[in-house]
Amino acid sequence: MLVAGGGYAWLVGARAAAPPPPEPALSVEVLDREGRLLRPFALADGRWRLKAQAGEVDRRFLDMLVAYEDKRFWQHGGVDPVALLRAAGQMALHGRIVSGGSTLTMQVARLLEPREGRGLAAKLGAKLREMRRAIQLEARLTKREILGLYLTLAPYGGNIEGARAASVAYFGKEPRRLTLAEAALLVALPQAPESRRPDRQPERAGRAREAVLARLGATGLFDTPEAEFAARAPVPARRLAMPMLAAHAAEAARRERPSVPVHRLAIEASAQMRLEELAAERVRELGAGVSLAMVMVDNATGDVLARVSGADPLDASRAGAVDLTRAVRSPGSTLKPFIYGLAFEDGIAHPETLIEDRPARFGAYRPRNFDRDYQGTVSVKQALQLSLNVPAVVLLQAVGPQRLASRLGQAGFALKLPPGEIPGLAVGLGGVGISLDALAGLYAGIANGGEAHRLRERVDSAVTDGEEARRLMSPVAAWYLAQALVGTPAPRNERAGRIAFKTGTSFGYRDAWAVGFDGRRTIAVWVGRPDGQPVPGMIGREAAAPILFEAFARLVTRPAPFGPAPREALNTRNIDLPPPLRRFGRMAGQVGMADGPRIAFPPDGASVERDADEPLALKVSGGTGRLTVFVDGVPSGTPASAAAFFWQPAGTGFVRLTVMDAAGASDSITLRIREPAGVAGTPAGQLSGR
């Protein structure tokens, strides 16, 4: 009697000295933007243990679990005396253990601190420690927290622990909504997880499920017809692989923050899955050693909604371990739109401006079109849609390759050049390096009205690098580009006009590109060999563009519309353009072309102080006919024949001045306007010719 009393006091006293329960090790989880599982990582010993909470699991499954395992769970304080007395009576009657009398809380205590020893005394001692620990758990945790621990730690066979891991492994889904058959199986398995493993003992698993259904038949949780239907449902005879969506992005997130248990990326799981399926299908048609990658970006935020880093992360023959979305490659012609965008912004060209596509030489550099043919006189819009090389280089010479590279870098997407090299005219045709995700971010900037966001990989950061947009080009230039690119001829068997897009092929057929956007999203596609070896005949239009169009088709029924034209946009025919914009006249290397205008003063890049009383002198040499000056791409004043202009800047900061003659030839400089100490600027300036 004294021993029994002491044991009772030892149990009851447990509440007064209840230590916090140990924190179980959990699998690291990478989730999508909505909290859906992209990829879990096994523990160091190979076990899968996914954290579960009672509120995130099917309610009827929880009710069945409590009714089957511990029907007084919500009333007792960790130990159920009625269940213990019943278990003792059954043991005395049958001479063996029929039921253990353990509550769910006692089972959690055992799972947190596994018992040791096999003898009767060891088992009794372990049972007493479980009872004491259960009382302590009830003192420190709520009932739902205790249920969450059980749902996280319960064994389900092999290296599967917890209801979430079991549901994903056996049913391929989270346990938020379970059928009656699935719920009954998850209730039955922890009782004998190895002997009832569905993937090894499906018949035993089925019988255990039927026993659960039979025992709970009178609880009112389900009716007889539903139970009979559940009993006939097939038992999953194999385990499914754990999800591995966005494998490289998930690995990068874990590597970036190794101590964080749950990572939440900006990726959309449904879009990621569809694009990965598309990549797996199309890669089989591309030939041995060829892979592909895709990136999808939200235009308005820069969120990376999908990142397909390769056709198969486990395919060593296609360098599956390499994240091809971040690899630096030659972009071919995909940078051409940004040349045209700067020309539009400077006011030296308009989509309807006529330009010559004919042989030209730029020093020792002589660009040629892909088909070795020339189109003659075309509109700037047509030159972009047909991806003509000579017009692109002519415009790049006008806007400046260094300025192009600087503008892309200022937007957050720097071009890669060998150490010590500066951008030259070859940049416009792919003579530079860039990654697929950077290219996607740049095109998203076009779609976003000229404002580019740095790519945002995750949505669980307090501070992100994708919140502030940076100016890539003017809204008018971006709108002109979008309207031109939506008219690019579609690949074979695809409908034109659905998306704005551009293709590219690097020198030697090493990289095939296609980047397209609608009013909401941008998708970039790369096809090639990860080792950089050429693939003869592989071009962007035939290898990458069909994949781009298929990607949009799988994701959206109807592409999102583009925004309205900016108020300053000039949507008109060539004949109605101002005379300087009707034809782009400067063409290097062509006999008979007049020398274009040159801004002799101030020099490009100069920093000048604004004087309210003295306007700044702008001196121009050369040029044909009347001259027009553009301030940040906007005509300022009426055309004049004078070679000296006086400009009164009324604001501070950087400004782009462009002078164009009557033949369309132009020159541009960038100035920094600063105020004298203590003087504040105003937002406008005046220009006059003398």
Notes on the structure:
With 690 residues, the protein is α+β, with helices and mostly antiparallel strands. It has 20 helices and 25 strands. The protein has a 5-stranded antiparallel sheet with strand order 7-6-16-15-14, sandwiched between helices. It has a 5-stranded mixed sheet with strand order 18-24-23-20-21, with no helix packed on it. α4 (104-112) crosses α6 (143-153), α13 packs across α15 and α13 (336-346) crosses α18. The model is unreliable at 1-6, 587-594 and 680-690 (pLDDT under 50).
What key attributes describe this structure?
690 residues, alpha+beta, 32% helix, disordered N terminus, PBP_transglycosylase, protease, transferase, hydrolase
Q: SSE layout and pairings?
A:
Blueprint: H1 2-12, E1 28-31, E2 37-41, E3 48-49, H2 59-69, H3 81-94, H4 104-112, H5 120-140, H6 143-153, E4 160-161, H7 163-171, H8 180-188, H9 202-215, H10 224-232, H11 247-256, E5 262-264, H12 269-283, E6 291-298, E7 304-308, E8 328-329, H13 336-346, E9 354-357, E10 376-379, H14 380-385, H15 389-399, H16 401-410, E11 434-435, H17 436-447, E12 451-453, E13 469-471, H18 475-485, E14 500-505, E15 511-517, E16 521-528, H19 540-555, H20 579-582, E17 598-601, E18 607-609, E19 616-621, E20 628-631, E21 634-635, E22 644-648, E23 653-660, E24 666-674, E25 686-689
Parallel strand pairs: 1-5, 3-4, 18-24
Antiparallel strand pairs: 1-2, 6-7, 6-16, 8-11, 9-10, 12-13, 14-15, 15-16, 17-19, 19-22, 20-21, 20-23, 22-25, 23-24
Helix pairs in contact: 2-8, 4-5, 4-6, 8-9, 12-19, 13-15, 13-18
